[in-house]
Amino acid sequence: MMKVTVKTLCCFVMTLLCGIGSLSAAQQWKDTIVVARDGTGDYRTLTEAMEGIRAFMDYKVTVLVKKGVYKEKVVLPSWLENVDFIGENVENTIITYDDHANINKMGTFRTYTLKVEGSSITFRNLTIENNAARLGQAVALHTEGDRLVFINCRFLGNQDTVYTGAKGTRLYFLNCYIEGTTDFIFGPSTALFKDCIIHSKSNSYITAASTPKEIEVGYVFKNCRLTAAPGVDKVYLGRPWRPYAATVFINCELGRHICPAGWNNWRNPENEKTARYAEFGNTGEGADDTNRVKWIKRLTQKDVAKYEDMSYLFKICSEWKP
Fold first, then answer.
1. pTM of the model
2. What is the mean pLDDT of residues 122-133?
3. Which residue is catalytic, options 99, 146, 160, 183?
4. Which DSSP state fits 121?
5. SS (H, E, C) 77-125
6. Contact, 242 vs 218, CB < 8 A?
7. What backbone torsions phi and psi does residue 252 show, to the nearest 5 degrees?
């Protein structure tokens, strides 16, 4: 029988532990992660998947989210960067929760289903939903990060569905569906909505921008289609959550539910002196601007040309062209 010395045994144990450590690290820091509710992926929830993404990466990580209903409040922390979250199917890959502002005096800003604090993140083919009853503000998407892109996603909710929550941040929504009741797109960020469907579920207001005075571009809607639920017939394009709210609609199709006045001053005539609202080239029954409020800006072709330039839209603090 071979004699095993203490020294030999220690060397063996150390080698084994180092091997396990290396294997564990290799498994932990993957460049592709699979999330699946049925347990067939690397993680069963998106919250768990955050542990498998290294902080402040200089490489791209792809998180593939399999079809399923993920009932969880998800926070993508500020150290998360360079990540693509890709759903298997937009209709059936659903992140959902049901908090609203009147649960234990929660308030609007803690009701989110998905909160994005990280930057340089892309989302594709996902449904993000707050399915709380109509008992108060209920945010589905809350963003605080910069350079966020949403492609072919759905945002479902009622009041305050999408909160673009940090000034000086830039967002791009492409081919998305956004629904809600009151102020369902709101906040201070600069955001471009292109080829999106904006669906009103009740007579109320679509946007409530709070663009800071020093930032030139707030919300820009281009080539979007504005639709409404049956019976909805008096919807405003926006009202200013803060005095210098900036929102423009360019080449959009406005349904008959858009009221003739178009815009509202939020019960404060002083906002009419500062709010930056404009339209250009819109079509549809709600696009007739004959009876629009007198304090909106009439864009010229030269003005509109600026909105074709990504550098102009997103020049806030650094070059970014999504």
1. 0.90
2. 98
3. 183
4. E
5. CCCCEEEEEEECCCCCEEEEECCCCCCCCCCHHHCCCEEECCEEEEEEC
6. no
7. -100, 160
Phi then psi for residue 108, to 5 deg, are -60, -45
Asked if pLDDT for residue 6 goes beyond 80, the answer is no
State pLDDT tens for residues 198-225: 999 999 999 999 999 999 999 999 999 9
Annotated catalytic residue 303: no
Question: Tens digits of per-residue pLDDT, 232-248?
Answer: 999 999 999 999 999 99
Q: Which of 108, 113, 144 is nearest to 47 (CA)?
A: 113
The whole-angstrom separation of Cα 232 and Cα 257 is 6
Distance, in Å, from the CA atom of 148 to the CA atom of 39, rounded to the nearest integer, reads: 29
Full strand arrangement of the beta sheet holding 197-200: 68-71, 93-97, 127-130, 154-156, 177-180, 197-200, 225-228, 253-254
Please list the residues that pair with 93 across neighbouring strands. Answer: 68
* 219 vs 215: CA distance, rounded Å: 11
Mean pLDDT of 128-141: 97
Residue 137 burial by CB count (10 A; 0-12/13-18/19+): exposed, middle or buried?
A: buried
pLDDT at 146 over 50: yes
Distance of CA 317 to the CA centre of its chain: 20
Q: What is the mean pLDDT of residues 72-76?
A: 98
